[in-house]
Specification:
Length: 258
């Protein structure tokens, strides 16, 4: 990253908005917008915004990645992983689902789609996945794809995940799971459940994506959305404007600071 002081003792770990804007050849307003959207992680120090060099480098690496949804997810997803996926509409939610499963298939995983609360049947999901390139029939024949209907999305997910992981451990496979949050889910209850799921995900060969429609979170305050994002390791947001992906960055505090 020539031009912003990389290398040597004089290298800056924290860059200001003007430096980043100049380097990327965009206006400062664009940098502020990317920060607000979570696309470019920033820190607020006093009244000023700062961007860590590592965050800018990761932002640039993402910009160089493949432009297809599958390609971008492939370079973003890790094992284990725990994502919240926000989609502008139901079709885009299904695009994310299909791309997620195509990445999981390519990595040799077992794929599981839990459904319920969105008013769509298994038959309709199967047809839509096939149309989007997921060979559900072949994968089912190989024991690598299954559908599971949920009567109550807020009850029993932790036990189901634990059972799936134990089943697939003997095969040496990762498990790729797609959940949906029902429109009627109480946020506090859902976040409490998500915290319980994280206990399983963090210690397993498990990749979980929990999807929600943009319309279901329109009434959330910014602080509420941040709470939801903070219970997941990463956020994926698909809209007509494109695909945005960001990671939760753990904060470490220097004990010497007040």
């Amino acid at each position: 990253m020539d031009g912003i002081g990389k290398g040597g003792k004089g290298a800056k770990d924290l860059l200001d908005v003007e430096e980043v804007a100049s380097f990327l050849d965009v206006g400062p307003v664009t940098i502020y917008r990317w920060c607000r959207e979570g696309r470019l992680p920033c820190l607020k120090i006093g009244r000023s915004w700062r961007i860590r060099r590592e965050a800018l480098e990761e932002f640039l690496r993402q910009s160089e990645r493949p432009t297809t949804t599958v390609g971008q997810l492939s370079t973003f997803l890790t094992v284990p992983d725990n994502l919240i996926a926000i989609a502008q509409n139901l079709d885009m939610l299904h695009v994310l689902d299909a791309a997620f499963f195509l990445v999981g298939e390519a990595r040799g995983g077992t794929l599981v789609k839990f459904y319920g609360g969105q008013g769509i049947s298994e038959k309709e999901l199967r047809t839509d996945f096939m149309r989007k390139g997921v060979d559900v029939g072949r994968l089912e024949g190989e024991g690598r794809f299954r559908f599971s209907a949920e009567k109550d999305p807020l009850d029993g997910r932790k036990d189901l995940l634990q059972k799936l992981v134990e089943e697939q451990a003997e095969e040496g496979r990762t498990v790729w799971v797609s959940f949906d949050w029902s429109k009627s889910v109480d946020l506090d209850t859902a976040l409490e459940q998500q915290a319980a799921l994280s206990e399983v995900i963090d210690t397993s060969q498990l990749v979980v994506k929990t999807a929600v429609l943009e319309s279901a979170i329109e009434s959330w305050a910014p602080a509420t959305l941040r709470r939801a994002q903070a219970t997941h390791a990463g956020t994926v947001w698909l809209s007509e404007a494109g695909l945005m992906m960001s990671r939760l960055v753990p904060v470490s505090f220097d004990r010497g600071l007040a």
